[in-house]
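Most newcomers find our protein records easier to grasp once they have seen one. Each record describes a single protein and holds just a pair of labelled lines. A learned vocabulary of local backbone shapes supplies the integers on the structure line. Nothing more is needed to start thinking about how sequence determines fold. The record below serves as our worked example for the rest of this section.
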Amino acid sequence: MAAKNRSALLIGGGHNGLVCAFYLARAGLRVTVLERREVVGGAAVTETFHPGFRNSTASYTVSLLNPKIIAEMDLARHGLRILERKVANFLPLPGGESLVVGGGRTQAEVARFSARDAARLDAYEGRLQAIAGLVRDLVLTTPVNMPVAGGPLETVRAWLDAASVGRRMSRLDLTARRDLLALFSQSAGDWLDGWFESDPIKAALGFDGVVGNYASPYTPGSAYVLLHHVFGGVNGKAGTWGHAVGGMGAITQAMAEACREAGVEIRTDCEIAEVLTAKGRATGARTHRGETFTADVVASNLHPKLLFESLLDPALLPADFRERIWRYRSGSGTFRMNLALSALPRFIGQPEPGDHLTGGIIIAPSLAYMETAFADARRLGWSREPIVEMLIPSIVDDSLAPPGAHVASLFCQHVAPRLPDGRSWDDCREEVADLMIDTVETWAPGFKASVLARQIHSPLDLERKFGLVGGDIMHGALALDQMFSARPVLGYGDYRTPIAGLYQCGAGTHPGGGVTGAPGHNAAREILADLKGRRRPLA
């Protein structure tokens, strides 16, 4: 059937759902977005959490948003402005020492701890960016799909897709191919130990291997998580991070405006109770209020477990597929806080305000510290010395707090997605929030007294509020068996599902989590290919 005069229903108005809706509407479909909450944006929203103080509620920094999507949705015209960090990261260290990464300071800073490590930085960055370039190139592609049914044509298509990916990989020289193998199989700790000898730089780089990842830095596969966090960029500069002026909600509000301009109808306060089907094909959705929406195609921006385990009759799904979804691992060990501050923190060794406060402030001085934090969480429910990344966006965006005051985002790890001994996060959240603030206080005396108010999101809060199962910001672990063609299940890595007319467009599909927009972009391409009676396997 032709794409024109057809209709599409998007379940979930997170950033990927909005991106998918935009591309479908631009192609001529009548598109409706149904969002459970009162505001679109999913986990990329800005909310007031204390009078006069507002901040990015869950997702809190930007780098992975794809430049093609930014340009084609014309997000700048719709109000999006992104400011680069003046430095990338600041790590307070024992003994009043510290490390600043980025802003042209990295080499001199690292040389204070190891001249050898400083001399290796350029080679490390060059080698890592060579692989990041390949990942960047594959972000907007549809993964090679292992056909679960169909004749020789489907098999030929799969081989052609694989050959296309193979050609891209063949552009790498032998050194890069060896690095690719290492990054997809090794732990972040093993990868970094092979490059550097000093703890501070390994901690600064290794944080990317555990952020949003409920794992030790020495867990095999965590090197890819490190890579996943460096393939982006800001304002055309690869590998950089930035602040969206107005918070992360500025991204999704700009997307919503682009969608409305393209003719998309956006409905909020519409929680879906059931995906409707007839004769094995998705035909629409019914809300908890009893409203029914019908469409030619349905695309879900929800976590795969929420879609397949809660909104569909299990009898419609193949038994092995149901089992794989049940086994799908989701739980990033994240405890997210927003703080209203009366003053900027003063860190031991660097007590005065400066550029070091404009980057990600990482409290995790070594890989060993991170490994202990994970072991604690596995055994006790949360780390007694947790990993905390703090950003203070009000330093560069004074719209977020009253004059002289500030807001801080605290991204805290490790905590168990499900607590041992049957305890609930509702009973422990205040205790753990106190611990996170006390942890910052250890490195920045007086910080605790500056906290005027706090907004707390435990893993359970993140699941209930944003649909992040297990508090997983990635919509599922970024492990080798849950990536590319196997995300979320091998045989359905191409945004399609076992139900005809039902697609996935969320972070539970390739390329995974982060505010990229890529799953929504790619899913829209596959939907349109099907509506036109042909499958276009790759970008």
